[in-house]
Amino acid sequence: MHELLNNPAVQGGLAPFxxxxxxxxxxxxxxxxxxxxxxxxxxxxxxASDFSIEPLTASRKIVLLGLLSAGLALPLMLLNPRWLxxxxxxxxxxxxxxVMLRILQQQEMMHMLLWGAGCALYVGWLVFWFxxxxxxxxxxxxxxxxxxxxxxxxxxxxxxxxxxxFGLALxxxxxxxxxxxxxxxxxxxxxxSYTLPLSFIAGLTGCLAVLTAELxxxxxxxxxxxxxxxxxxxxxxxxLWIQSLLLSVVTLACAAGAVYLTWRVTGAPPL
Amino acid sequence: xxxxxxxxxxxxxxxxxxxxxxxxxxxxxPHTFPRFMISHxxxxxxxxxxxxxxxxxxxxxxxxxxxxDIAIEAASVSTGFVKRDDHLKSTDFFSAxxxxxxxxxxxxxxxxxxxxxxxxxxxxxxxxxxxxxxxIDAFNCGADPMDPxxxxxxxxAAASAQFKRSDFGMKTFLPGxxxxxxxxxEVEAFKD
Lengths: 271, 192
What we know:
Chain A has helices at 2-5, 8-26, 36-48, 58-76, 84-105, 109-131, 137-157, 161-184, 192-212, 219-224, 226-229, 240-266. With 271 residues, chain A is mostly helical. Chain B has one domain (21-191): Lipocalin (Beta Barrel), CATH 2.40.128.110.
């Protein structure tokens, strides 16, 4: 059993998938199935890393912010003023600067400004567009799965196993969330408990992989298209599994593009 | 009274002399390489080294004291395989962009006879500082044979230590990639 849990594929794929399945199902009645995302991610952190915050490295800041955003999402699900969505995007941008601060401080001024603004824009963008999917569980499920799998695989190719596992865990958890909807042909409650931690963690992981590993920067704009692509119009009367399939094809195509661009630069992962 | 004053003056005058008794050395980077060994999945022991190291060492053989201040460039890690080096530089291991320098500092050099035998110091890796003792396995000083005037003094040493990478928060791929790291430090330094 111990050996099984030490397997990176179990840590970043199977374990978060199972955890997300259980949580999505268990919390369905409380309309908190979206917690599946943070449950899957937390399982991966527990198995592949730890929850300690000393020293507070960039990857630990991501874990911390992921957990905090999931906690913050619960009261935010009760509010829906118009200013909240842009405010969350700004908070995402600020979080990106805070996570990368130590790295940015070591760059020349021009690089520091470019990378800081780029990361803030990327994370803010993801938070904004994913927040727009918080009442569309099938779209959010497909987009989350594609963003997690695409970003995770690209980070893995870009020479960071831990960041790769973070991304893949999100993809696996979102996949579990989507699978339940496909099998039962009924939508799960989504909400900000799903979209907020997903967009925070995926965005910050992507930025960190660019700054500290070999992930090319132009992969991020390709990944950023995913939540927008998940808004394509669909025939409303189609069964949920068909809608899920169509959305997954579109969003996974973007993810595949991101992985291909990374692979062209880095080749196979150095494992 | 006069005798006491003379003694005081002599003592005061001898203080700078005592301070100068410690010899200061600057590390010779092309001949200084920290190497590390680590178990790979229990099958073999992989070896790597850091190509860029700098620092200062002081030794006072008479007082049997000394200090060490070494900086190692994390991004200079080299294992003979570029992809693995890139991986080692990433957040999985040395996180070289976030923590560009690994340092070892000590003010406690233990002597055995005339030569230093061990160094009790602090290793800072990934922002975590922990005590690590270096055992000095070999120590030689003398005139640099490459200096035509034979005036340049140089010392060389081989030191080793063992520590757990998890103590510094480096936990990726444990236990497959071993936790115990053996460090072998070959160093040469010119007398200032």
